[in-house]
Amino acid sequence: MAGDNDSFVRWQKIAIDHFGYCTNLILVLAVAALGYTLTFAKDPDFVGAKPRCYLGVLLLVGLFGLCVSIICGLCCMVNRLLDFRGTAQRAKNSPDALSKEVLDRKGDLTWSLFYGQTGAFLVAVLLIAVVVGVALVPRLLHSNSPSESRDWILESYDEQKGYVFRKDGMRYKTHCTRSYLSGTGNLPEATSESECSAVLPYLHKPLPLEQGPRGPDSQILKFTETHEGGTKGWHCEFTIGEAN
């Protein structure tokens, strides 16, 4: 009988330790996933993804799920501490000890919070994985194709729809936002697509185009003509409207 009791105590300690490890692990993973998701929300691949509206909804639901998971994890930790303290007080017959019924309810609440933490985390990770997959997989597949040029190519131009550039298998639909000559000090906003016509000699050819770094500037493509001719020193800026 005593051996059975020792075995129960030993396995109960193992279960308690494993429970704490699982709770802490999911909490750490949820915080890490939350940080990654917030960073990915500003990534040009996500911002320029074609079904951006649907992906945005999924990403918001995923962020909400991660927040719920983190809150449940923190509440679970606090509730377990209160449960342990109450159990310790009952073990030493403290007059301030909680009743057995209250401790049982705390134990049930701990498991409910753990289930909520785990469920919310799994759902959130699944949704975020779908968003990342839809936004990144097409680009990764295209970028691995040897036939795709790693140079910027002016693919097409339309006076109404603007300019389409291509790089690494991605197509960027853009609009002319600024066109000016270097050194004039005047940087007017473009009023028509034709004001950036300095890039038209590069139609279906590589051209010197630069994309801004991460953040708002990543949606700007800048062109500077360096070849000798009437347009040398001319600058054009294009705003990315869609990338796919």
Describe this protein with a few key phrases.
rod-shaped, single chain, 4 helices, six-stranded antiparallel sheet, alpha+beta, 244 residues, 2 domains, 52% helix
Number of domains: 2
State the strand order across the main sheet: 1-2-3-6-5-4
Structure classification: alpha+beta
The share of residues in helices is: 40-55%
Q: Could you say which overall geometry the principal axes of the C-alpha atoms support?
A: rod-shaped
The counted number of beta strands is 6
Strand composition percent: 15-25%
* SSE pattern, N- to C-terminal: HHHHEEEEEE
What are the segments in which pLDDT stays under 50 over at least 5 consecutive residues? 144-148
Evaluate the radius of gyration: 29 Å
Q: What is the number of helices?
A: 4
Mean pLDDT: 82
Largest sheet: 6 strands, antiparallel
What does this structure look like?
With 244 residues, this protein is an alpha+beta fold. The chain has 2 domains: 2-143, no CATH class; 153-243, no CATH class. Helices cover 52% and strands 17% of the residues. The protein has 4 helices and 6 strands; from the N terminus they run ααααββββββ. The protein has helices spanning 2-40, 44-47, 52-91, 100-143; strands at 153-158, 162-167, 170-181, 209-211, 220-224, 234-243. A 6-stranded antiparallel beta sheet has the order 1-2-3-6-5-4. β2 and β3 form a beta hairpin. α1 (2-40) runs antiparallel to α3 (52-91). The chain starts with a helix and ends with a strand. Residues 144-148 have low confidence and may be disordered.
